[in-house]
# Entry
Amino acid sequence: MRVLVTGGLGFIGSNFILHMLETYSDVSITNLDLITYAGNLENLKDTDRHGDRYQFVKGDIADRNLVDDVVSRKPDVIVNFAAESHVDRSILDASQFLRTNVIGTQALLDCCRKYKIDRYVQISTDEVYGSLGPSDAPFTETNDLKPNSPYSASKASADLLVRAYYKTYGMDAVITRCSNNYGPLQFPEKLIPLMITNAVQDIELPVYGDGMNVRDWIHVMDHCRSIDTVMRKGKTGQIYNVGGSCEHHNIDIVRLILTKLGKPDSLIKYVSDRPGHDRRYAMNAQKLSNELGWTPLISFEQGIEQTIKWYVENEPWWRRIKTGEYLTYYEKWYGSLQK
Ligand code: NAD
Ligand code: TYD
# Structure
């Protein structure tokens, strides 16, 4: 199977590529990534040992000529991870979110159609459904789309385009909507890696608002396995929710991290709330487990332990990001990948 992955230098995409190359000997991957601030060539430096089964192309999914060229090589399937993914950045400026998440998705869909690619997989998010009250039932695939941030609005727009291409052109497309991921290689601007690395550095842990917002956590490897399942077995035109049934208040996660690292609660600093901050996300992933047989395998207790250990053991990786030094590695890694 020849898979075109977009955004494969980011957190989930790089974990997905490693999962696919390690698990299947008959899979080859082309990774199209723009190397934005969130893309890190270092994440996939170990792909060398897979030889020709991994290929990297630097470029923008919104660049139609480039996308046409890459898709004309006729992969069997396209999995679109490429996105601007951080809510706080989208609040500061939504422009790049619309360009990448919406226009980029359109370019991929058009080329997918032109070259009659067998399957298109859109990696979406629970955030398209908006926010739940404390006693609301978890989101199902039939919930209305009610995005509240520029980020989630751009992701919901992309989902609607995918639906339209399926309905209008009969394209074989599927959508996964997953809850909050955590695990190795996550950029330290997101809650869990930010809190772990700040705690290690003995700097303040900024908790937004009252810290009582709820997220439904899933280990990135369980998410990657769900994408693999949907890519192979998902029914065309369908949406599949993915979640860990693992709801936690932010403040409890922050306290747990401090405890595990032996650091004091006094490092916690309550700061102004995020504008439009969604109160609670929770996913009902029954459709995916009933129809396709997927279930998460990694408990939160196991996963958070492993994740904290990973960040402690891979301090040079995140220190290079936090100092900005990783940006200078592009030339080094990119140069070596070109050979
Ligand atoms: P990330 O920000 O870590 O990585 C995004 C990657 O996309 C980076 O490598 C970046 O260089 C690349 N990219 C950005 N703009 C691009 C462009 N125009 N062309 C090509 N490449 C581009 O994101 P992530 O956390 O790995 O998320 C991946 C996908 O999963 C996103 O679509 C996101 O919406 C979705 N998702 C994320 C989560 C989560 O908890 N992180 C949960 C559900 C869904
Ligand atoms: P985040 O990791 O940005 O994911 P998302 O907003 O997409 O769910 O944030 C997760 C939760 O943690 C969210 O409720 C906002 C909160 N948060 C903080 O309290 N402090 C922080 O510094 C960050 C980055 C997030």
Observations:
- The CA atoms of residues 176 and 240 lie 5 Å apart.
- The chain is about 40% helix and 15% strand.
- The pocket of nicotinamide-adenine-dinucleotide (ligand 1) is lined by residues 6-7, 9-13, 33-36, 38-39, 60-62, 81-85, 100, 104, 123, 125, 155, 178, 180-181, 187 (CB under 6 Å).
